[in-house]
Structures are given as C-alpha cells and as structure tokens.
Amino acid sequence: MSQDIYVVIEHLQGQVLDISYTMLAAARELAQSINGKIVAALLGHNAKNLAKDFADDQVLYLDHAALEEFTSDAYQKALAELIGKDQPRAVLFGNTSIGADVASALSIRLGLPLVSSCRNFTTDGKFVSQICGGKIMAEGELPSPTALVTMVPGGYQPDQGRNAASPSITESAVPALDSLRVSLSKYIEPETGDVDISKEQLLIAVGRGIQMKDNIELAENLAQAIGGVVCASRPVIDQGWLATSRLVGKSGKQVKPKIYFAMGISGAPEHVESIMQSDTIIAVNTDPKAPIFDIAKYGIQMDIFELIEVLTEHLKAVKV
Amino acid sequence: MNIVVLVKLVPDLVEELTIDASGAALDLTFARWIINEFDDHALEQGILIKEKSGGTVTVLAPDLEGADDVLFTAAAKGVDRLIKIKGEFSAMNNHALSRVFASAIQGLQADLILTGVQAHNDLDGSAGPLLAECLQMPYVGYVSGVSTNDGKVAVRKEYPGGLLAEMEVTLPAVLGIQAAEQPPRYVAVSKVRQTMKTATIEEQDASDPDPCGGPTIGRMFQPEATAHAEMITGSPEEVSRKLVDLFKELGVL
Known about the structure:
Chain A has eight helices and 17 strands. By secondary structure, chain A is of the alpha/beta class.
C-alpha cells in the first residue's frame, strides 16, 4: 500500500489522447494533497516512445503484443495484476471508451471501490463528480484502500499535464495474456463527409430542441443566409437527421469556430467539452437554467422556432 | 440466441432537481422515472438483432414507478419476455444493481446481454461492465453496431473524433450500447395499451443488494457557474437585429 497515484495512459493508433494529460494534471493536484507521487502506467507494444511528455514522477511500461491497441480483456488482465501487486492509493482512468470499459471490471475483480465521472479533486483530496448532465456535483472522501477513479474532462487543461522531459521508464512485468475474449479486427476511419466541421469558422449547431427532421431545413436556411455550416449534438445524429460527420461531441468532432451558434442545445458535458475552443458561443434555449448559458458568451432565452426564421430573413436582408 | 436487455430507470432531467435534507443525495420524492436513453438504444439493438438473426429478447427492469410502462412498451416493440425485479431501487448504487441483475440473469441462459453504455446518474461506474464482471463475461462498451456470427459477435466501438473499431467478442458477452443501428422505433400508445391486455410481466424478488464498491457521498450541490452569458433580450425582431449587429462586430458579416 502506497500513496502513489497511478494514471492509466490512453492512446490509440500511436497517439496519446488528451484525456491522459488531463488525468496527469488531476494526479498532480491529488498527489500534492495526499503527499504521493505520480506514476504513469503505459500499456502498449513497442510504444515506449509515447512516454515523452508526461508530467509525472515515474513511468511504468507494460509491453505485450496483445496490448498494442486497446481491448478491454487484455487491459483488464494486465492492470489487475499491476494494481493488485502495487496497491497504489488511487488509479485514474478516463471516463471514456477506453477507461470506462476496464475500471468497472477491475472494481469487481479486485474488490476495490470505484468513483466515476470525477471532474476534479479538492485541495484536501476529495473527489468531485459531475452527474445528471452536469446539473449536479457529488463530493466525497477518496475511498480506501485503492480508489479507482474515472475522470471526465473540464476540471483541468491537458497542457497542465504535459512536461517536456518525462522521467525514466521502468518496465513492468506483464502476466500471460491468453484466452482473450475480445480482439480488435480493424479500425474504421471517420467518414470525411461533405464538410469538415472542425475547420469551419461559423457553425449553426442544433440539438434535441430542433424536435424533428423537417426542422433541420430551417437550420440549413439560417446557415446559408449567414454563410455557415450546420452541425449537431448527439440526439440529432442518433435520429439519423444529419450525417455522422456533423456530430460535435465525445464520439464526434472537436470544433473551434469563430462563432458557435447553439440552438436547442442544453449543454451536456460531453458536448461542452468539444466546443470550448470556440471564439464566441451564442446559445438559444427556452430553459434559463440550461448549462449552455454558463459557458456561452451571449444567450437568448427563447423558443428557437420563434427566432430562427426571423433571424434568417434579417440576415438575407443584410447580405443582399 | 437469447438476448437479454437490462433497463435502468433514471430521474427525468427535464424536471427540477433538488438535493434532499441530508445534503448528500438527490431528493427523489417527486422524481419522474424514465428509461435511461442509452437503454432505449440497447432495447432497439436487441430487437434489431432478433429481427435479423432470430432468437428471443427478454427485458429486465427494476421495480420503480414507470417500470410497467417501460416493459409494456418494450413488448409492443417486439420483446418476448418481460421481467420486473422487485425491491427498493430508488437509492441503489450500480454495484448493488448489477449484483441484483447478475443473480436474476443466472437462470436465463443469456447469450448476449445488452445495456446502455451509461446513465446520467452513474457515480460508481456503469451497470454494464460491473454486471459483466459479476458474470465473468467479456464487456465492450460505446457500441453502435452489432452483428452476430457463430458463437461470436462483431461490434463497432466508438472512439473520439469519429474513429470506430471493429472488435470480435466471444459469447456470452455484455455490450454497452451507445447508439442502436437505427433510432429507437416509435410505438403508438394505442398499441402499448393493446399489449397490456395480452402481455404478462413476470416478477422476481431482488437478491440481497450489496452496494460494496460504491463511494460514499459527503455532499451534493448544484454547480455555481463562474460566468453566465450576457443575455440578449427583446422580441424575435429585436433579438435578430441585435444578432446581426453582433455578427458584424465579430467580423463574420
């Protein structure tokens, strides 16, 4: 049992994902409050070179052909062994397609407590989790003996977790990884679609508030009038009303336009994390308490259908 | 193939959320319980697999207000068997819930278990991967496509930026569904009413819930925004005029 904070580094196709740096920044805060050190756990195959800019005290590297790309089964086996042996004070995972797939299994397998959706740690070492679409925060003491924690973005900037010089790397033993039940067949690269919303300067974004497929046309008309492109949050894409290439959010694109005009989008954390680099966010929503108003620069409390056509006409008049 | 879908009911976020007198939990006295939206996708995916490859779909739901509606709606969509687990679920954490579900599933000879990848009130991991480990089955989450093939399933798993991974998983397995291959189907209220007359909900008592593994919450609170948008007010006409001025100011017109 140690006071070490382990961070399970997430990477795909040879790229370390931003959430890894966010976690390293969180670990820095936690390590200070509980007087521990930060250990980056890197699982991969011929991937030692990925550990070059971690703001940590030590890198543990686990090399195995079955760890080359992420699969839940191989990661669980390797991590169960590592965590069981080292018994750190906490292990940080992303609340992501990688971390969330393994942290729960480890909690049951090792009989260790699990905290999910942690956004930040307080200066006295408590976890603060974000639930109910960002409307509620839940705080508590870091559970013992080893707390497994899945982290959401938002509490720390990835850059806080980067450091030009990573410390030395220690290779750690990997258990036998046989009879695996999950295997990667191939990656399918994202459809490029007709536009790349991550490069557009003016985005008209629609959310659940657009209500039905036929209303997408209203957003298209507005986009045309101002010279922008329509994109959407998850519910709209799941309904099949717009192509996947237009998805902004956790499984979609990160965007950084000059103007992000959000209509009928409440501002769930999974969406907000992908639009924070926009220069100016303008939000239209009927709910005055919608979280989107906390991050938007300008807000309009109004039914989008009262505004959208009137605004389109005004814009057309200016453009002529 | 025996497909089992687990449904979690969650408080509707459209309603005002308040913290109870303890200061450490949501006040659920007047909560409206609805199906977790990802579980609705899991249900749709289960029905799609059955329609394509045959088999049966069984749905399990905890006994919370609204569970009967959820189960009868599932039956109207094409589910074969409805099971309601009786117990006190409103404050149950996911470790306890998944142990209860695991025990209820033992007798169902499930080949494939589907559930939503997450729920908005998860504080101790999501139900799917916890359940998978209780049953010692493999788990893959963030799934948006499933095809079955001779003792295995091929799944599409979502990663950031629109990247997908195709993975092969041996059965029996648990999958956390992010999105079904089609939007959850609509079923008319009249059809649900009709189903209520013919379908039966089986009831099972929950095994002793064991919450061990979930954290203790000391305090819950509503986040205080560090900033708030500058509100643009007026009639739609006035707001439009102000927006046009703003767009000019920002250099896009």
